[in-house]
Amino acid sequence: QLLGLASSFRLRAAYIYGRNPEKSEDLARKMSNELDIDVRATHDLKSAMQASQICVTTTPARQFFLRKEDVPPGMFVAAVGADSPGKQELDPRLLLSNKVVADLLEQSLHVGELQHAVALGMRREDVHAELAEVVLGTRPGRTSEDEIIIFDSTGTALQDVAAAVAVYKK
Length: 170
Fold this sequence. Notes:
alpha/beta, 8 helices
């Protein structure tokens, strides 16, 4: 995911947050060398979020770890890890209170982050758009600098990177 982002954006720094500090440190070193930018492993997700504009979650988590209050205004979050029933990375309140774009709405409602927001009362009508609508210009993407965009992606890794770039740029 980081390599994909680096091919589309001029990144100055990146943070890696994970359950295994040793693996996070190893990946940070590898990516720092490969991308020639400052990549740091962090145990402080909230601080890393405050210093970032883009967040990509790619875990097999079954309980959210990214809390609504940790996401600053203007953040773009691509939620990639929730791709089957029960998986969850994001606080459902993030989806309930921000602009949500799904790669495939029906799929996201059943196996993506949306499954958990729906359980708290979100309706399909509350989802801003599907990715294709934003890419084609039939629905707007970002409309203000402070807007938080949540991309609920349940597709393939290549589609996730391409989609994240397209939605962020729109």
